[in-house]
């Protein structure tokens, strides 16, 4: 046996023993939890002492009220300017003739990504109009467009400053971490205090939520510029600003554009959240469908949001790959020989004939659309709806599949999941809970995360949300456990069957782009409301990452390792359990990590349908403008997310790279 094979065998054995140890601990904890739930064990003595709670909410409320009053002279003009700008953009987009918009989007897609992107984008925009969401889509595009412009305008300079100043970056990094994990609903309260109910509040929420990626990747891109290129520019007499704009930013452009792409996608994901503060558009259509429990209408508006997200994602990604210098590079690759003036004119005419034809077509559509009524507003005769068939299908399932849905809710999710975990967390005395959390954090992620776990639980107790935190944690663990088990099973199947993977891929793509709220509507129709509804919707929403990463990790297992196991007589199941999964564990853990983060993102959404816990606390306090209570609940979610994130990532020990020793 070679040295490399010895390392491989040792690595697989260590992974196997670790897995067995954690499985034994998990089974023992579950047996205790199930026993407590079936015997109705008392849970009163596990509470945090009431006299240890501190009134930290009231000073926060007073502070924000003072800021709103003292700085009204600053925020009110900003709100008026943004509202006026949004109104003007809305009016302009709604005035544009619909054939002009369809043709413009299609031509832009053709320019950036070729014929297939142009065809898809044109058909997608046309489909949105035919579903009856033309006006909503235009309003949504204006809010997203303004938010992205503001986010990029602020984010790129901040990223540049962070790249040039390590101390500033050290200050910005934890702020960005908090912004990315703090529930968006927490931003509602200061936004309402500072800007009132207006379109400005929607822009504010979207900018705060979507600005971190462009800051991070601008900083990263500039820092990754080769030092030799910078030194060469300085040696030729370039100043710092000249080097930045002529060397560093051009070389960092691909990375910066990826950040802008992520900012755009995060801005689109905020469409529904901003609808809660009165912003019109597709998000409001989904929100109204949720309030009316109209699955068909919610699905239609959700599909419109998905199509809009796909269009802006493909456009921004294609711009990253092509960029404004693509035409110049193509000309350099295909130089034209100079000739007579007549020949030059013919070359120019052939080169720009397509562009001139496109501009002429757009001009004709714009003129005709402004004169002909059916070409100005999207005609009702071309619209259709799938809402009624979808609603009838869900009504039929709610009646005829009740024996299945009730078993899934009551026996599977409540009896085997939520009830035992919830009882165990409330039964444990608070010192024991803190000791267990710190111990698990220490063994999985180190002493820093253990201290963070202690600080997070102490903050929940001092803030008066201990019981609510335990309720939320039980929901997160229940949804996470079901999602991980089902996701790993589906990921294993996808890694072994190409046909199954091809069938599963478009389903996962749709699940990852469909707005979160859309999941709640059919779940409410089938299961009613309550915490279990949030757990079920969360489990569906958080499935894609663990499925994809499990399939990817198993596929990347080295073929020699599989052949070695098979040559020693291992069956397919033995090879999977003893070789493939242990070697793919680092990748699978990454998928589990992303799944847990997505589960935590659904905490707030579940609170909207009676899910209870911290999510409902944040939502209720945002309605009543109680910033202190909302911030305490929101920061508890943030601390929980940080601890679970670092625990699922482990101690960042990479798997061994097995190389052939010569």
Written account of the structure:
Helix content is 83%, strand content 0%. It has 30 helices and no strands. The longest helix is centred in the N-terminal third of the chain and has 36 residues, at 3-38.
Summarize the structure.
The protein is an all-alpha fold and about 650 residues long. It has helices at about 5-40, 55-70, 70-95, 100-115, 115-130, 135-165, 165-180, 185-195, 200-225, 225-235, 240-270, 270-275, 280-290, 295-320, 325-335, 340-370, 375, 385-400, 400-425, 430-445, 445-460, 465-495, 500-515, 515-525, 530-540, 545-555, 560-565, 570-605, 615-625, 625-650.
Keywords:
mainly alpha, disordered C terminus
> Which series of helices and strands comes N to C?
HHHHHHHHHHHHHHHHHHHHHHHHHHHHHH
Helical content (DSSP H or I, runs of 4+):
over 70%
Structure annotation, total helices: 30
* Major sheet description: none
Question: Tell me, what's the shape?
Answer: globular
Q: What structural class do the secondary elements suggest?
A: mainly alpha
Number of strands: 0
């Amino acid at each position: 046996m070679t040295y490399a094979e010895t390392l491989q065998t040792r690595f697989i054995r260590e992974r196997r023993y670790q897995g067995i140890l954690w499985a034994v601990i998990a089974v023992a904890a579950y047996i205790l939890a199930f026993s407590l739930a079936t015997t109705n064990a008392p849970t009163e003595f596990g509470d945090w002492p009431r006299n240890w709670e501190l009134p930290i909410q009231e000073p926060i409320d007073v502070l924000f009220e003072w800021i709103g009053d003292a700085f009204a002279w600053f925020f009110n003009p900003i709100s008026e300017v943004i509202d006026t700008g949004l109104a003007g953009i809305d009016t302009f987009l709604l005035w544009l003739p619909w054939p002009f918009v369809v043709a413009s989007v299609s031509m832009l897609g053709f320019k950036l990504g070729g014929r297939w992107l142009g065809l898809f984008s044109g058909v997608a925009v046309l489909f949105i109009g035919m579903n009856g969401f033309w006006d909503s889509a235009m309003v949504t595009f204006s809010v997203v467009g303004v938010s992205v412009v503001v986010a990029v305008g602020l984010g790129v300079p901040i990223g540049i400053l962070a790249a040039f100043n390590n101390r500033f970056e050290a200050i910005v990094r934890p702020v960005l971490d908090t912004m990315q994990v703090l529930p968006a609903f927490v931003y509602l309260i200061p936004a309402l205090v500072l800007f009132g109910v207006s379109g400005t509040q929607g822009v504010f929420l979207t900018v705060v939520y979507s600005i971190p990626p462009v800051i991070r990747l601008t900083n990263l891109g500039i820092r990754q510029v080769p030092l030799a290129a910078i030194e060469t520019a300085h040696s030729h007499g370039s100043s710092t600003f000249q080097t930045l704009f002529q060397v560093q930013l051009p070389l960092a452009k691909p990375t910066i554009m990826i950040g802008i792409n992520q900012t755009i996608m995060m801005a689109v994901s905020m469409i529904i959240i901003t609808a809660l503060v009165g912003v019109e558009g597709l998000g409001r259509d989904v929100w109204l469908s949720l309030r009316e429990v109209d699955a068909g209408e919610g699905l239609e508006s959700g599909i419109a949001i998905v199509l809009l997200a796909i269009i802006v994602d493909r456009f921004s990604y294609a711009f990253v790959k092509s960029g404004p210098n693509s035409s110049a590079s193509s000309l350099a690759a295909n130089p034209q020989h100079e000739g007579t003036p007549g020949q030059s004119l013919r070359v120019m005419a052939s080169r720009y004939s397509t562009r001139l034809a496109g501009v002429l077509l757009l001009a004709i559509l714009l003129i005709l659309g402004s004169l002909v009524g059916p070409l100005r507003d999207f005609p009702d005769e071309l619209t259709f709806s799938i809402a009624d068939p979808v609603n009838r299908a869900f009504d039929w399932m709610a009646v005829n599949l009740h024996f299945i849905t009730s078993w899934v809710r009551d026996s599977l999710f409540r009896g085997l999941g939520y009830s035992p975990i919830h009882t165990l967390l409330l039964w444990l005395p608070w010192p024991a809970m803190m000791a267990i959390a710190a111990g698990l954090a220490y063994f999985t992620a180190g002493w820093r995360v253990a201290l963070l776990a202690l600080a997070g639980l102490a903050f929940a107790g001092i803030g008066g949300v201990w019981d609510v935190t335990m309720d939320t944690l039980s929901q997160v663990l229940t949804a996470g456990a079901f999602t991980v088990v089902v996701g790993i099973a589906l990921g294993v199947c996808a890694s072994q069957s190409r046909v199954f993977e091809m069938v599963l891929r478009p389903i996962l793509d749709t699940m990852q782009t469909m707005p979160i709220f859309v999941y709640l509507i059919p779940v409410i129709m089938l299961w009613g409301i309550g915490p279990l509804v949030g757990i079920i919707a969360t489990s569906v929403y958080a499935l894609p990452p663990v499925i994809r990463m499990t399939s990817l990790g198993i596929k990347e297992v080295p073929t020699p390792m599989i052949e070695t196991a098979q040559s020693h007589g291992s069956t397919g199941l033995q090879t999977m359990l003893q070789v493939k999964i242990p070697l793919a564990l680092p990748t699978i853990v990454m998928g589990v990590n992303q799944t847990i983060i997505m589960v935590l993102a659904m905490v707030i959404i579940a609170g909207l349908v009676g899910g209870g816990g911290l999510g409902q606390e944040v939502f209720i306090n945002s309605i009543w403008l109680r910033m202190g209570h909302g911030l305490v609940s929101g920061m508890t979610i943030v601390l929980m997310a940080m601890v679970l994130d670092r625990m699922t990532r482990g101690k960042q020990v990479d798997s061994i790279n097995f190389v052939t020793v010569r």
